[in-house]
From TrEMBL:
Pfam families: DUF6576, Rhomboid. Belongs to the peptidase S54 family. PANTHER family: PRESENILIN-ASSOCIATED RHOMBOID-LIKE PROTEIN, MITOCHONDRIAL (PTHR43731:SF14), RHOMBOID PROTEASE (PTHR43731). One of its GO terms (biological process) is proteolysis. This is Rhomboid family intramembrane serine protease. It is found in: Membrane. GO terms for cellular component: membrane. InterPro entries: DUF6576 (IPR046483), Peptidase_S54_rhomboid_dom (IPR022764), Rhomboid-like_sf (IPR035952), Rhomboid_protease_S54 (IPR050925). The lineage of its organism: Bacteria, Pseudomonadati, Bacteroidota, Flavobacteriia, Flavobacteriales. It is a multi-pass membrane protein. It comes from the Bacteria. It comes from Paenimyroides tangerinum.
Amino acid sequence: MMELLQNLKRGYKAGNIVQRLLYWNVAVAIIFIIFKAFYQPVYLFLVDNISLNSNFEIFIYKPWTLITYSFLHADFIHLLFNLLMLYFVGMLFETFFSKFQLLAVYVFGGIFAGMTYLIASNFLDINSQVVGASGAIMALLFAVTTYRPNMNVRLALIGNVKVWYIAAFFVFLDIVQIPMSNAGGHITHLGGALFGFIYIQCLNKGFDMGKFFVWLNDLFSPNKKKYTNFKNVYTNNKNGQTSSQPKKNQKDEVQIQIDVILDKISKSGYESLSKEEKEFLFKQR
């Protein structure tokens, strides 16, 4: 048992931000499974104080639920689907952005999605509670889609699909299912999608919400290592886009190699990269 815990601890420390978020979601799920099996009153108390209630009069006394609801899941299938989506979308997001930017979109996207749910629920007379990381994950998906809509993603049994097709499919499903069931959950997804779009628009105008988490890291990091000079986005000047380099016409060999890899991703999808190319791109984050 101790060896298992040590392996999990090492895996958490060595993992990237996506893997750490997966750990957090699984850890919360395990805690709730234990309480549900052995301490029902505690389980019900925690669910009531962690899930986001559509009743504003209840929410006003539990404002923290705007954050906590996204770490709780309704059942195993709900958790499993969100873990798979978080891993898939998170890897795509980290191809272009830093871990601080991913954390910003995930956390703030979840909050924005929750606020969308609260506002819409009062207009549509929805009386329910919502849980799950779907809104935050949709924010990540739509941030990638807004930034690189024509990027190819390789799906099993289907082949290469443009990422905006995937995003549009999920939006279509959510809109169609609002009148049918779980209206609050689908509205939350749409709120997360809207935030992902807004985030990229803000980023393009020079406002990066990820800097908040850079500041937190600098504040609490034991070794006080600074990350404030991270690149916002890796871009390709061939497409007429701005570069994060101080001088547009002075590309070093690293940036040239990054551009070649990004071109390959756009044409054939992330999975087309070799192991060496993936490792190289990972080291540039």
